[in-house]
């Protein structure tokens, strides 16, 4: 049930990110056509594309975590024995969780500061533009909280070898070792 819900939310997230990218491409294409063909550029297009880019980057925080696309140096980790490897994974997850936990309230403060500003071309409240920062960090925090709890449970229940390796994607873990991506 939990994996099914997580898969559904992951699909919605992917569709949203692809849609934002598609809309951004269409807006930029329309800008080029109106500027060079009709000699009257769209005033709002560059700003809209910039905001869509911000949304893609900030919503993409969790997407990168879910796809395990962030850069890691695993030279020493790969050479550790099972129990130590499990403990290092838990420690790594705790550090990431703490870092995201620091950014989460900071994103709320940033959104509140930006809420007093209105964009120049589109006259959009800038707080709305940066709401994805909170959403991205919040979803990433929940993701790492669940992952950390699962890793802690495996390490302290005597099965540290079952803690997923750093290079395994969540899709690999859910499918029991068969990557469906």
UniProtKB/TrEMBL annotation:
One of its GO terms (cellular component) is plasma membrane. The keyword Membrane applies. It is found in: Cell inner membrane. It is a multi-pass membrane protein. It comes from the Bacteria. Keywords: Cell inner membrane, Cell membrane, Membrane, Transmembrane, Transmembrane helix, Transport. GO terms for molecular function: transmembrane transporter activity. Residues 25-152 form the Tripartite ATP-independent periplasmic transporters DctQ component domain. The chain crosses the membrane at residues 12-33, 48-65, 86-104, 124-146. One of its GO terms (biological process) is C4-dicarboxylate transport. Belongs to the TRAP transporter small permease family. This is Tripartite ATP-independent periplasmic transporters DctQ component domain-containing protein. It comes from Marispirochaeta aestuarii.
């Amino acid at each position: 049930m939990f994996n099914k819900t997580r898969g559904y939310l992951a699909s919605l997230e992917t569709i949203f990110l692809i849609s934002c990218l598609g809309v951004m491409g269409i807006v930029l294409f329309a800008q080029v056509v109106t500027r060079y063909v009709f000699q009257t550029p769209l005033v709002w297009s560059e700003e809209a594309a910039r905001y869509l880019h911000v949304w893609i980057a900030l919503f993409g925080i969790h997407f990168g975590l879910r796809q395990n696309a962030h850069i890691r140096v695993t030279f020493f980790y790969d050479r550790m024995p099972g129990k130590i490897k499990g403990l290092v994974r838990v420690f790594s997850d705790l550090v990431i969780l703490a870092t995201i936990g620091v950014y989460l309230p900071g994103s709320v403060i940033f959104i509140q500061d930006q809420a007093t500003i209105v964009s120049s071309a589109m006259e959009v409240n800038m707080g709305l533009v940066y709401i994805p920062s909170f959403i991205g960090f919040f979803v990433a925090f929940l993701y790492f909280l669940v992952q950390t709890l699962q890793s802690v449970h495996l390490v302290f229940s005597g099965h540290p070898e079952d803690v997923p390796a750093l290079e395994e994607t969540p899709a690999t873990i859910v499918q029991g070792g068969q990557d469906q991506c």
